[in-house]
Amino acid sequence: MNGLHVSGLSVTLGGNRILSDVSFDVEPGHVVGLIGANGAGKSTALKAVLGIVAPEAGDIRVGEQDVVDLSPRERAKKLSYVPQGAPVHWPLTAERLVGLGRTPHLTPWQDVTDADQAMIRCVMQETDCWHLRDRLVTTLSGGERSRVLLARTMAVGAPFMLADEPTSSLDPLHQLQVMDIMRGQAACGAGVLVVLHDLSFALRYCDRLVLLHQGGVLASGSPAEVLTDANLETAFQVKVARWTEGGEQFLAPHAANGG
């Protein structure tokens, strides 16, 4: 399958223009980070790709297929989604919730197969939540629930994964594990589009970045090309300290006015 291509995306919600002429590509095997200040339109861009919000203009394609021409079932097979802080109201066990990720591949009333069950266990182990399998999701902490929802998304086995701030509410160890999982999904051939606020994660884990500012694309390219001092001060009103440790690059922001 070819890449996920977004061209000329514009979205207006409640009479407010949220995105204007936004374009980017997500190729198989790559992690693409969507970054920008609060209100820049990152989550809206993901929801437009998924069909959760209707674009005012633009073209969104998976390979040669326009996503608007895909049935909900086919779209679910191609584009999996990790929502930001999604509430869970049903008293399902964690294992059962992860199993819902296999739904696009099942016929109505079909139960999961042995192969489906093996995949469910695999992704729950990879996201460090297999030990939670018999717990009701409504009793889990925010971080535990986030890992279960990530496992559900991985269980779909879609060629493209979209994740909206998947490290929020997680402790530092599990933040690193989640970002390693994103890279692992790409290493297995998936295209990953992830909304991030942590600029150090964006630098270290992403192949390409799209920096949104006031609803448009301020910069797009490699992390080195996008995370320049000028771009960061324009988009975030911050300066950054940079250093290298163990062969990896890091950056830490501080207020541009010295505060």
Automatic annotation (TrEMBL):
It holds the Pfam family ABC_tran. Keywords: ATP-binding, Nucleotide-binding, Translocase, Transport. The keyword Repressor does not apply. CDD domains: ABC_Iron-Siderophores_B12_Hemin. GO terms for molecular function: ATP binding. Residues 4-239 form the ABC transporter domain. Signal peptide: none annotated. Part of the ABC transporter complex HmuTUV involved in hemin import. Responsible for energy coupling to the transport system. This is ABC transporter ATP-binding protein. It comes from Kordiimonas lipolytica. The lineage of its organism: Bacteria, Pseudomonadati, Pseudomonadota, Alphaproteobacteria, Kordiimonadales.
